[in-house]
Amino acid sequence: MKITASRWLLGVMCVAASCVQPALAASAAATAHTSQIDIRNFAFAPKTLTVPVGTRVVWTNRDDEPHVIVSAGALFTSSHALDTSDSYAVTFSKPGTYAYFCSIHPMMVGSIIVQ
Ligand SMILES: [Cu+2]
Asked: I need a labelling partner for 91 at 20 to 30 A (CA). Which of 31, 35, 65, 114 fits?
């Protein structure tokens, strides 16, 4: 029980710090890696993100305006309208290139390359 709780806490801390969870690498080989995309100044940062299969990608809105993540070609489920500091996560389990945009501001585009 004690070990489970501390591992859970470590995991949360690692996600917050965007680290790779080295301390848990041995037991967490099958655990998804997490990558972060910031939405800032009406742009996605990074605009193109390359990740391994199984990665959980988290978008966080750092703007004062709402944004909506929409997959070009509907390859993944769209987000709800993200207010300031809201996050949206998608786990990518198949290789491919996933282009996406903001449905409120269609000039905002980005892509995730899963390999
Ligand atoms: Cu937007």
From this structure: 65
Superfamily of chain region 32-114: Cupredoxins -  blue copper proteins (2.60.40.420)
Cα 2 to middle of ligand 1, angstroms: 43
Which residues have C-beta under 5 Å from ligand 1, the single-atom ion? 67, 102, 104-105, 108
Where in the sequence of the chain do the CATH 2.60.40.420 domains occur?
32-114
Measure 42 CA to ligand 1 centroid, in angstroms: 6
Per-residue pLDDT of the chain (115 residues; tens, 9 = 90+): 444 444 444 444 444 444 444 444 444 445 669 999 999 999 999 999 999 999 999 999 999 999 999 999 999 999 999 999 999 999 999 999 999 999 999 999 999 999 9
How far away, in angstroms, is 35 Cα from ligand 1 center? 20
* Entry pTM: 0.73
Measure 24 CA to ligand 1 centroid, in angstroms.
36
Residues linked to residue 86 through DSSP beta bridges, in sequence order: none
Place of tokens 């917050």: 16
